[in-house]
């Protein structure tokens, strides 16, 4: 006998009023409906394609396992971390380098394994748990291939800085997204490490998508790109080697409030099954499906999950 029928039977046995029974049945029915809908997971996602894909895949995949994923879209780095610490978000897909440098101000050189262990320990103390990491989507500096060939074929960031230093008469337009311009792991630190001196007029902050368009059209001499972006190859961009190893590992992983994980112990193995399928070439292809081929985020996410037998 289920709970609803049991309550109805007791109403009849004890002569409860119809109004009382109706109220009781309504309240219990609402509670059962909430249970049937599953646990609510509050997810935050940043505004660029990769984050929208990861968040959309999370929504679709976890829905199959009984979760209600409610996503706050278009957030910035400065918004996601405070929201998690204030218990306004349960989970975000975060990048190891962002947490190490932007949140914890760790600037020593570490390999991927060391970076993950350091960030795991630092954030665990704050009540946040890093789950299994996926691909490394580090920052990179790229040039249009046509421009690179005309200015001495720079292959490394040091080559590019040397070229800038030796040609002060030229206009060296450098394009970057707004966050990179001011982040601790962005332009200020990179310029200091490499001795890159650009005038204020040479530095242009813009939407991340516009950086790629500026490079494709050769309206910018160099600019900030993301390692797993499908537009690098599609637009014929040359990625310069970070020969002084400024950019740390930016492996992405779900970072979840520890109290939420304790209440939902199935979440970690579920998300590991997803992250285990994602590597750099796969994510570059998925990003390119959206940004180059013009397919919708939802369609690309759904097709991928079906291909991986996760949906």
UniProtKB/TrEMBL annotation:
Residue ranges of coiled coil: none
Gene Ontology MF: a single term: transmembrane transporter activity
Cross-referenced InterPro entries: ABC_Gly_betaine_transp_sub-bd
Gene3D superfamilies for this protein: Osmoprotection protein (prox), domain 2, Periplasmic binding protein-like II
Domain ABC-type glycine betaine transport system substrate-binding: 44-305
Transmembrane segments: none
GO cellular component, one term: ATP-binding cassette (ABC) transporter complex
Protein known as: Glycine betaine/L-proline ABC transporter, periplasmic substrate-binding protein
Source species: Zymobacter palmae
Biological classification of the source: Bacteria, Pseudomonadati, Pseudomonadota, Gammaproteobacteria, Oceanospirillales
């Amino acid at each position: 006998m289920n709970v609803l029928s049991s309550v109805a039977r007791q109403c009849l046995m004890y002569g409860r009023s119809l109004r009382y029974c109706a109220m009781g049945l309504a309240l219990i029915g609402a509670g059962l409906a909430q249970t049937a809908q599953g646990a609510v997971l509050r997810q935050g996602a940043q505004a660029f394609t990769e984050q929208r894909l990861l968040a959309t895949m999370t929504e679709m995949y976890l829905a199959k396992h009984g979760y209600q994923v409610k996503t706050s879209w278009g957030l910035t780095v400065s918004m996601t971390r405070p929201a998690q610490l204030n218990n306004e978000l349960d989970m975000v897909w975060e990048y190891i380098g962002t947490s190490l440098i932007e949140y914890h101000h760790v600037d020593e050189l570490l390999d991927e394994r060391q970076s993950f262990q350091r960030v795991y320990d630092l954030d665990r103390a704050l009540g946040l748990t890093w789950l299994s990491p996926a691909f490394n989507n580090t920052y990179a500096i790229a040039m249009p291939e046509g421009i690179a060939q005309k200015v001495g074929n720079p292959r490394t960031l040091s080559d590019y800085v040397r070229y800038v230093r030796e040609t002060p008469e030229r206009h060296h337009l450098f394009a970057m997204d707004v966050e990179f311009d001011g982040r601790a792991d962005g332009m200020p630190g990179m310029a200091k490490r490499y001795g890159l001196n650009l005038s204020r007029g040479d530095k242009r902050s813009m939407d991340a998508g516009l950086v790629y368009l500026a490079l494709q059209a050769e309206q910018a001499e160099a600019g900030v790109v993301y390692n797993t972006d499908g537009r690098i190859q599609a637009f014929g961009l040359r990625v310069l080697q970070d020969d002084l190893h400024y950019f740390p590992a930016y492996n992405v992983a779900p970072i979840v409030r520890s109290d939420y994980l304790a209440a939902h112990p199935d979440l970690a193995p579920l998300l590991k099954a997803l992250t285990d399928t994602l590597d750099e070439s796969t994510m570059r292809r998925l990003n390119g499906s959206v940004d180059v081929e013009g397919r919708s985020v939802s369609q690309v996410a759904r097709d991928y999950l079906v291909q991986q037998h996760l949906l």
